[in-house]
Amino acid sequence: GRPAAAPxxxxxxxxxxxxxxxxxxxxxxxxxxxxGGTLAQEAVFMLRPSLGRISxxxxxxxxxxLDDPSASAGHTIVDLGDDAFTRGRAHxxxxxxxxxxxxxxxxxxxxxxxxxxxVVLGYGCNMDPGGEIARALTALREKxxxxxxxxxxxxxxxxxxxxYAGQAAGLRSAGAVVAETNELACMAVAHLMGG
Length: 195
Fold this sequence. Notes:
195 residues, seven-stranded parallel beta sheet, alpha/beta
């Protein structure tokens, strides 16, 4: 079949919808939390043209290496699957406890403009990753108000055991912008940042 057309600016604006209402005047930074290095690297390369310098815990050309990977600095995209985070605990695609704690910290940080987070479905992964993030987001919004928009890169298929549609619906009901590719998620983040 023919490759799908690249999403247009209008598609991205429609995806983001009302999520961007509070962003433009807010200032601040993008905070990306990824369970895996591949999607994290891809996000760095896709967002760098619109964001400029990005801090990360991955050694990538044109980025700043974080002094402390557990603390964001400016625009930050972190691979939470790195050894620094996984010593003594399961990989974040299975055990999201650190990812959820970090999500809360970024949500509560007044310097955070937009949060980008991946949710990966499939065998050998957490059985309800989107549900865990949706419940955390709902609790954070009840405690702190709307907070920054959260864009989810939902990586999976309708054959995955977690149930793609249910994962997407749960995240949307918690107020997340759900993108079905990492590229679209990054485009949504750039759009929210006015890029």
